[in-house]
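pls read this protein:
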Amino acid sequence: MPTLQANLRLSLKTILFTTDFSPASQAALPYVQALVRWYGSKVIVAHSVPPEPALSVPMDAAPLNMNLSWQEAQNKMTAFLRTDPLPGIVHETVLEQGDLWDVLSDLIRRHDIDLVVLGTHGRQGLKKLVLGSAAEQIFRLARCPVLTVGPKAVCPAVQFENWKRILFATDFSAGSLKALPYALSMAEENNAQLMLMHAIPLVPVQQQDDVQEGARRRLEKLVPLEAADWCKPEYVVRFEFAAEGILKVAKERHADLIVMGVRAAASPRTSAHLPWATAYEVVCHAHCPVLTVRG
C-alpha cells in the first residue's frame, strides 16, 4: 500500500514527448516507455517546425504543402512512427509550425500535460549564448515537471525497468523543495534508495563540522516518518559549488535519476541563454536523466 499522502503521489495521465528526430531525442524514449508502464499514461509526440524567416518584402505565407521544412518534418515523423517507437502505448502525434516554446506551451495547456520528456544535445559555451538552449527554455518555463536526458546520459542497452538510486539535490529554498514530493514519489514507485544532498561552497575548514551537522539535520527533517517503510534515505553534505557537487555525488553513488528544483525564467529568450545556470550544467554533464520542477 502507498505510504505517501495521496496529494504527494505522482499521477501522470498525459506525457508530452517532444522530439527533433535526432539520436538525442531517441535516447529519451526508453524512459517514456517505462513511465507509461508505471502510470498508464497517454503520450503526445510533438515536433515543431520553425517559422520561416521574415522577409524584407511582406509576402503571404506559402501553403504548408509547398513548405519544404514542413514536408521534411512530415517525412521524418512518418519514418519515426514506422519504427513503432511506442508499442502498445496509447499515443497521438502533433506536428505544428511555430516557435518551439509557443507550440509546447499551447500543448501543455490544452492537454493538461503532467510531464514533459525530452532529449537534449547539451549546447554549451558560445553556441549556447548565441543560439540558446531549447531544453533549458522548456524546463524553466513549463508549469509541469520536465525529464531531460542529456548528451552524457547512459542509454539503457535493454528495456529500461526502473530507477534504483535517486538523488534529490536542494539548497533548502522554497523553489527547490517543490521538487521533493516528486523525488519521494519516484523513490517509492521504484522502491529506490533515496539520497538527499546539499552543497555548500566556501565554508572555512574550522566551521565545516558544525555546518555539516546542521545541514544534515535539515535534510533529515525533509523525509516523512512513514518513508522508513519503503526507503532508507542517505544524507549527503558537500562543500562544493552546486553543479560540481551534484555531479560528483551522482557519479560516486551511481545515481539513476537526479531530481532538483529550478528557478523560473522571466521570458523565453532569457531562459534559453542563461550562461552558467546550475540545472543546465547538471543536465549537460550528468550520466543519468534529470527531473526538474520549476519553483
